[in-house]
Amino acid sequence: MKKQQNLFYLMAFFLSITVIYFLFLGTYPLLTPDESRYAEIAREMIETKQYIVPHLNYVLYFEKPALFYWIIASALKCFGLHEWSVRFWTVIFAIGGCGLTYFAATRWYNRNTAFYATTLLATSFLYFIMGHMVALDLPVSIFLTATLIFFYIGIQPSHQSNQKYYFWLSAVMAAYAVLTKGLIGIVFPLAIIGTWVLLLNQWRTLKHWPITSSTLLFLIIALPWHIIMQLRHPAFFNFYIIGEHFLRYSTLEAAHEEPFYFYLGILLIGFLPWSTFLPQAIKAHWPTWKNRATYQTEIFLFAWIFIIFVFFSFSKSKLIPYILPIFPPLSILVGHYFALQSSRKTTGITIGFCVLPFFSFAFATYLILLPHYYDLMNPLVGTRFLYLLAVIFTLVTMISLAVYWRLTIKAAFVSLSIGSMIFLLTLLLAIPSIDHNSIKSLAVTLKPLLTSQDEVINYKRYNQDLPFYLQRRVTLVDWFMNELEFGYHHQSNVTWMIDSQSFWKKFQGTKRIFIITRVTDLADMRRDHPQLTFYPIAQTQRNVLLSNQSVRCFRDTISLNQSIHSSNPMSC
After folding, report:
1. Which residue among 134, 142, 500, 561 sits deepest, i.e. has the most Cβ atoms within 10 Å of its Cβ?
2. CA–centroid distance for 128 within its chain
3. Please, what sign has the CA dihedral across residues 20, 322, 175, 146?
4. How far, in Å, CA of 121 to CA of 322, rounded?
5. Sign of the Cα pseudo-torsion (218, 222, 224, 226, in order)
6. Neighbours of 44 (CB within 10 A)
7. Residue ranges for the chain with pLDDT beneath 70
């Protein structure tokens, strides 16, 4: 009876996470550049039926492997071309990461720890945000998590009879990680496992591991795509392996330079609201050298965290989501800390809840000041949302602290978890009025006006969501760099990447063209070419849609919901 009851609670727990994570999934436009880029690559795979070699705006794109594009393409085939379908698998990965965390924490500690750890992970800011954003970082994090969890479970004495199956699962997940984001999919597991073996002097156990069969299985899955790409495009190895791995890590080529301590700040903010409990949890689980044999699981988790954290801290190319793979082990450690302290209010837990409001005040101040330094898509609505978010997060931390003093640690934990989820769901609703980079409203305006003979031009910009929303190729002006540079130089007849001189010839020709550019660029165009007539059609806070010929109807679109300003009413 108790077992059935536990199963019911577990199903209800994960059903709640699933429902919450799927809420508002399609209510905001694709975020640029990552979401738009990966969605468009998958869409082009479906359209061209070219699934092996990725293309972006129909130009060769070799920066990342193809697995994640195939995954997105499967959702687009099933559900159609919608934001919801683009993000479908990202949410599945996020829920899967919660499931893996629960699975590991249950076997390494207990169910109570698993509940805390899974809730921590699901409600941490960076994990939740990346769980709703199409990017490679979350899928590769989950594949790495599965690789390490299956390995560590496989070497436990209680699983000796099934050891090879866990090792094979681990090898398959590592291969998927490589096919998602490259060599880190195997480098990180080998470095973490090797460090654990070295610290605990486990060399003798290696002979009992099914290393040969696991390696063979890994190579069977990971190698074929790389071999095919190299055979089709001889420049692939140098660009993908040398350029995208070694040079990207060791040089400033990617232009993502940040200070060495960058990820410390990202961890403190990204792991909110739980980061105020991190120091206490680390201290409580920190092993001593003399007693390290009794801390095997903790050493494995610390090796997992510190190797990835230090690796990316030394990198010359730093982006916020890179450290996402350390969130599951951090959640397990902090979750176990809560489980150990849940029966009494210790100093560490008290400090965590008391310090949290100070974090919330600082974060709320940042949100309130943001409109002064960032152009919102819809300034009026966006500012209101930011104020609301500031109030919600401040109230959440204050209420949780009050619950902690008046009731129990578990009640405060639940209060903080629910409040964090409310804050994060509100943030999803705020995105359309905050994100000023989206081109969706202009694409929606433009699409009914287009004929097969018309040409769409992105002038001195590359709005990566534009091809996806228009479902067609876009001509780019003076854009021979960044993501498309390699493809431009290794693909013949790329006639849709032109220079300014060619653009102005098109503009003055008889063919109708539509141009999307920044509002500031249009001002420059009018200043430099006063003899030409420009026909604006629609405008957002940052971008404008225009044509070289008169369009029957035009309107000024200021926000994503296509609101009409009285200063520029619709005219036909």
Report:
1. 142
2. 9
3. negative
4. 16
5. negative
6. 24
7. 1, 253-255, 480-481, 552-572
Contacts of 266 (CB under 8 A, 6+ apart): 126, 320, 323
What secondary structure letter does DSSP report for 376?
-
Continuous segment of H or E residues that includes residue 368 = helix 347-369
CA-nearest of 58, 131, 97 to 476 is 58
User: Could you tell me whether strands 497-498 and 475-477 are parallel, antiparallel, or unpaired per DSSP bridges?
Assistant: parallel
CA proximity to 280, closest of 335, 327, 324: 335
The dihedral through the CA atoms of 490, 257, 139, 437 has a sign that is: negative
3-state secondary structure of 505: helix
Go through the chain and tell me how many residues it has: 572
What is the dihedral angle through the alpha carbons of 526, 528, 530, 533, rounded to the nearest 10 degrees? -50
Distances (CA, A) of 351 to 117, 119, 277, 329, 346: 19, 20, 8, 22, 9
Query: Given this model, what pLDDT does residue 307 score?
Result: 97
pLDDT at position 569: 31
102, 118 in Cβ contact below 8 A? yes
Check if the beta carbon of residue 314 is closer than 8 Å to that of residue 261. no
What is the helix (H) or strand (E) element at residue 115, kind and residue range? Answer: helix 111-123
Question: What pLDDT score does 342 carry?
Answer: 81
- Joined together, the tokens standing for residue 486 give 């390699």
291/244 Cα distance (integer angstroms): 42
3-state secondary structure of 497: strand
Q: What is the pLDDT of residue 568?
A: 38
- Paired tokens of 564: 């009409």
* Amino acid of residue 477: V
Contact 336, 285 (CB under 8 A): yes
Q: How far apart are CA 485 and CA 496, in angstroms?
A: 13
Query: In sequence order, what are the beta bridge partners of 564?
Result: 557
The per-residue pLDDT for range 237-288, each reduced to its tens digit, is 988 888 888 877 777 766 677 888 899 999 999 999 999 999 999 999 999 8
H or E element that contains 312: helix 296-314
Rounded Cα–Cα distance for residues 224 and 239 (Å): 18
- Residues with Cβ within 8 Å of residue 439, at least 6 apart in sequence: 32, 463, 465, 466, 469, 516, 540, 543
Cα 543 from Cα 521, distance rounded (Å): 9
- Please choose, from the candidates 77, 52, 76, the residue with its C-alpha nearest in 3D space to the C-alpha of residue 66: 52
The pLDDT, as a whole number, for residue 570 is 34
3-state helix, strand, coil in the chain (%, to 5): 65, 5, 25
Radius of gyration (C-alpha) of the chain in whole angstroms: 26
Q: Which of 177, 155, 178, 179 is nearest to 166 (CA)?
A: 155
Q: Can you tell me whether residue 396 is helix, strand or coil?
A: helix
Show me where the domains of the chain are located: 2-30+62-341, 440-547
